[in-house]
Amino acid sequence: MRRILPLIVTLFFGVEALFVGGAPPILAAVTITEFPVASPNGPGPITSTDNHIWFTEPNDDTIGRISPTGVVTEYPLSAGFQEPRGIAAAPDGTVWFTETGSHEGAEGIERIDASGTIAQFPVPDGTLPFGITTGPDGNVWFTRRGFPSGIARMTSMGEVTNFPAGLHNAPLNIVTGPDGALWFTEDGIVDGGSGAIGRITTSGSLTEYVLPTPAGASSGAGDIAVGSDGNLWFTWATQASPDLASVSRSIGRITPAGVITEFPVSSGHGWPSGGIAAGPDGNLWFTTGAANTVASISTSGTIEQYPVPTANSFPIDVVAGPDGNVWFSEASSSKIGRVNLVSGSGVHEPGSGVHERRISFEIARHLVAKGRVTATEGVSACWQGVSVTIQRRVEGKWRSAGKARTDANGVYRVQLRDHTGTYRAKAPKVSFPGGDVCTLAISRTRRHHHARDRNSAIAPT
Questions:
Q1: What is the pLDDT of residues 130-147, one digit of tens each?
Q2: What are φ and ψ of residue 246, in 5° steps?
Q3: Model pTM score
Q4: For the domain bounded by 32-339, which CATH number is listed?
């Protein structure tokens, strides 16, 4: 994983070869949960390990960590002006990050482990390390924004190798590709030129693919990720004039063979798209800062955008979390957001009252009451292990007729041995940060030994 986006206006993106689709609507079909962080200046790039989501706080010289349940821990760096930017998780669970620095000597590469212990690896002055990723060779690879810009490799012992300069434009973010090479983005907007996607092998062989850019315009690629389809996907902007209002935003796809396709997002928001990451649902997820949305794009090019609850939060980067949800950083609101793809995300806490559904039937012999506990988002696993009580109404009072626990799919099944009557299923209410509402139902009863049944409509009491 890697994650990078500058917190300055001067970075970004492009235009493409094949145009597919139009501007997507902004939807509200998923819930989003936000968690505040202490950083007064907002979090930046974000990554994920097996247990936590990690993020940088560039303007506060801090590295932050948030658990899937929203517990935030922050680790101040040893000195000021280090400005951590790029961040990437390593296979061993450690996290590497770049320090671009704004003062001489403040730049470098650092590593933080799960306990918060930080190891520093200096780089030559003027390197300005930016994007970072762990490579297929076990080394750390990063982009150099200093002059001359380029790509560099660092061993676990801190030995740095700079590969020859001469890139088409300044590199930004970098990721290990599906072909075992390193792929990176190049921003041409800063210099009024064309952006590009670069590819470098672990031995240093370089190939570049320049973004198709209209005459008189500038373009750039921002962040980059490997999709579930084996291609590389990246954020892309084209700027027709120095005015930010002229920026048009796209998501780009490039095959390992170098074939580029453009999927326009929208224009008129005055800022390019931000980070991009492969999601647990097979889509690519990205942020649109000025539009205040997080968005997904399928590998066939269908785009959906979702508004962030906090206005003007400027979502800037995104990552798939260890909990099956999508997490993003909000640069202007000092929050970390979570797109709740998994219902019941977070800690389940008992609530007041019960969920209840009734069904009436007559039985001649034993029946099996079957039902399912579901959630508003259609994911029933949030009820795994919840106790369901089946009650029968006798002489005006509800009496227990059987108990069951739901399985991993939210299904319960209980045998009934009582006579004809009205039954209900009950389960304790559960609340959780995702905002989902779980519901309870009894399905049609099943006959046993020629039993006859009559089902009433299932309705809440």
A1: 999 999 999 999 999 888
A2: -90, 0
A3: 0.71
A4: 2.130.10.10
